[in-house]
Amino acid sequence: MMTMDKPSYSQLLAQASHLEPADQLRLLEGLAVLLRQQLGHGSHHPITALRGLGREVWQGSDAQEYVDRERATWNG
Length: 76
Prior knowledge:
Blueprint: H1 9-16, H2 21-39, H3 55-58, H4 63-73
């Protein structure tokens, strides 16, 4: 059975330089996904996933009244 040597960083970079810019970007994104999986960070949660969380807590509250109450507690 024939084994293949792993390409070096320099060889991979040289090959990537021949790709179209869009393919270089796809390669970069693919490498980022691969690295996250290897490091155990495969589950990516964007901050936008928190949008609307706890909305029911604030329902019926006036934002300005809340801010005014909070400011009233500053500096005694």
